[in-house]
Amino acid sequence: MKLIIKLVIVALIANAAWRLGLEYSTHYRFSDSVQDAAIDSSLSDAQLRQRVLELAARYDVPLADEDLMIRTEYSRRFINGSYVKPITILPGYDRKWSFTLAVESYVLAPKR
Questions:
Q1: Residue 63 belongs to a domain
Q2: 53-109: per-residue pLDDT in tens?
Q3: Of 54, 94, 103, 112, whose CB count within 10 A is highest?
Q4: How confident is the model at residue 111 (pLDDT cuts 50, 70, 90)?
Q5: Number of domains in the chain
Q6: Is the C-alpha dihedral spanning 75, 46, 70, 96 positive or negative?
């Protein structure tokens, strides 16, 4: 009986770790895609905002427009944002998890 309880506990911990790992993997892929988009000098801040929101929809990231800040200073771009996503840690138990997006990038000059 003790063995079964231990196995159930290990399975619950493994399940929680798997679900958290998947969400963090998605967050890092989304962040990398935003980094790639930030380098594009042909995009204005408004176009980049739209692109970031499109990427958020593609990666199923609940990032709202009002939670996103984009600014360009000379040849550098700063993209900051945050979102909260519910993650099922245990069966029947969801926890709201906060993620922060912080991208700083140099804007590449267009090819001549």
A1: yes
A2: 999 999 999 999 999 999 998 889 999 999 999 998 888 889 999 999 999 999 876
A3: 103
A4: low
A5: 1
A6: negative
Torsion sign across C-alpha atoms 10, 15, 21, 24: negative
**Core vs surface per residue 29-60: b (16+ CB within 10 A) or e:** ebbebbeebbeeeebeeeebbebbbebbeeee
Contacts 24+ apart (CB under 8 A), 48-53: 48/77, 48/79, 52/79, 52/81
Per-residue pLDDT reduced to its tens digit, 11-61: 999 999 999 999 999 999 999 999 999 998 888 899 999 999 999 999 999
Q: Does some domain include residue 111?
A: no
Residue 86 placed within a domain: yes
Q: Judge whether 112 lies within some domain.
A: no
Provide the residue range defining the domain that includes 13.
2-106
